[in-house]
């Protein structure tokens, strides 16, 4: 019950330093700021910062999930109205919030106990759920970031991430028991994690106080993790970034988040990818764009010029009489698609005007200008009318 009250008493908004009406983006920014400040790598040996880091991560895992946040807000409203106490018990009535199940918020309560079992039955009746094997609460999800060069993001790459987080203890492999020993079934609850008691006409089922609702007891705890099955340690993760990832995109790594207690499933790790700008290419969906500097004579007379692509340079034919600013399309030379194929490369020609010409070039330009006028060409014909 103590652990259940601890969950219900938590103010996740206060943990992140945001208001209860904060937007998803405000919650995300607050979490990232606190995670950087409190990260164990930035505070070596500071147990207070480590504990605060865990609380912040836990708060974010609830408030960043729309479904969990909605149920959490509903729970806070019920508690504020006095319809439920902080210890998870009803203050009156027979249905609470029309079937609202606090246990659904976290999947399981203290030590895996479902909060619906805490309320029990009335007048000697059975609880709403028959106690069964205790459910283990998975570890929290974690977030981190990485920055990629533009071409690595487009073509795909593998990066190494250094993460410091609660991880399965390497000494006991997450069991919590000293190597060579094993957790034993709790005799008080026969491994169910629950005990029943009667109080007058009321029957209650609550987490076993001997095993804290886990269903097992550890007589000889692992010295490295003190029986929790978890230690905070740095680890290196190889992350395969798929081709075509965009700036700001998140990659989910299942089971790479915070470890669950005593062998419970780990949470997930979400990696936000930041992509640096490229000096040659820009991107529009699956298409790449590039501006190609050309001489005026190449547009007038036509030419074949070399254009960079992701796989090297290719020759592009500029038709005679091409206008400045025209875009030429090279099929299949853009961003690779996950389903196969690739986008296009869009080449926009831009006239490069020389800042200085020698005497011969100047004389040639003057001759050209005279010939141009004689031919009747007027670049401003019909302009501004």
TrEMBL record:
Domain J: 11-76
Binding site for Zn(2+) 2: 186, 189, 208, 211
One GO cellular component term noted in the UniProt record for this chain: cytoplasm
Zinc finger (CR-type): 156-234
Source domain of life: Bacteria
Cofactor dependency: Zn(2+)
One Pfam entry name: DnaJ_CXXCXGXG
Binding site for Zn(2+) 1: 169, 172, 222, 225
Free-text note on domains in this protein's UniProt record: The J domain is necessary and sufficient to stimulate DnaK ATPase activity. Zinc center 1 plays an important role in the autonomous, DnaK-independent chaperone activity of DnaJ. Zinc center 2 is essential for interaction with DnaK and for DnaJ activity.
Job description of the protein: Participates actively in the response to hyperosmotic and heat shock by preventing the aggregation of stress-denatured proteins and by disaggregating proteins, also in an autonomous, DnaK-independent fashion. Unfolded proteins bind initially to DnaJ; upon interaction with the DnaJ-bound protein, DnaK hydrolyzes its bound ATP, resulting in the formation of a stable complex. GrpE releases ADP from DnaK; ATP binding to DnaK triggers the release of the substrate protein, thus completing the reaction cycle.
Name used for this protein in its record: Chaperone protein DnaJ
Organism expressing this protein natively: Gordonia spumicola
Biological classification of the source: Bacteria, Bacillati, Actinomycetota, Actinomycetes, Mycobacteriales
Gene: dnaJ_1
């Amino acid at each position: 019950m103590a652990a259940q009250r601890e969950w219900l008493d938590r103010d996740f908004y206060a943990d992140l330093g945001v208001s209860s009406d904060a937007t998803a983006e405000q919650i995300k920014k607050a979490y990232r700021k606190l995670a950087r400040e409190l990260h164990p790598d930035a505070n070596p040996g500071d147990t207070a910062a480590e504990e605060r880091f865990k609380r912040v991560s836990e708060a974010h895992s609830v408030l960043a999930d729309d479904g969990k946040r909605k149920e959490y807000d509903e729970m806070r409203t019920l508690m504020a109205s006095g319809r439920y106490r902080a210890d998870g018990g009803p203050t009156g009535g027979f249905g609470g919030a029309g079937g609202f199940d606090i246990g659904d918020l976290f999947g399981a309560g203290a030590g895996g106990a479902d909060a619906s079992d805490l309320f029990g039955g009335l007048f000697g009746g059975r609880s709403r759920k028959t106690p069964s094997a205790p459910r283990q609460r998975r570890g929290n999800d974690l977030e981190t970031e990485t920055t990629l060069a533009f071409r690595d993001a487009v073509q795909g790459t593998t990066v190494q991430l250094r993460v410091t987080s609660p991880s399965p203890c390497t000494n006991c492999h997450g069991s919590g028991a000293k190597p060579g020993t094993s957790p034993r079934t709790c005799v008080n609850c026969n491994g169910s994690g629950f005990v029943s008691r009667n109080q007058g006409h009321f029957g209650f089922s609550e987490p076993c106080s001997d095993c804290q609702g886990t269903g097992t007891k550890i007589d000889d705890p692992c010295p490295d993790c003190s029986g929790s099955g978890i230690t905070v340690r740095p680890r290196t993760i190889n992350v395969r970034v798929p081709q075509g990832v965009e700036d700001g995109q998140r990659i989910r790594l299942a089971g790479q988040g915070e470890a669950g207690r005593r062998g419970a499933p780990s949470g997930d790790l979400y990696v936000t990818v930041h992509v640096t700008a490229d000096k040659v290419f820009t991107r529009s969906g699956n298409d790449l764009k590039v501006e190609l500097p050309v001489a005026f004579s190449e547009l007038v007379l036509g030419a074949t010029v070399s254009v960079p692509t992701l796989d090297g340079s290719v020759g592009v034919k500029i038709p005679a009489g091409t206008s400045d600013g025209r875009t030429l399309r090279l099929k299949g030379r853009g961003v690779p698609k996950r389903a196969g194929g690739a986008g296009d490369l869009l080449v926009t020609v831009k006239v490069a005007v020389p800042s200085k010409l020698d005497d011969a070039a100047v004389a040639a330009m003057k001759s050209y200008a005279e010939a141009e006028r004689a031919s009747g060409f007027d670049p401003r014909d019909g302009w501004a009318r």
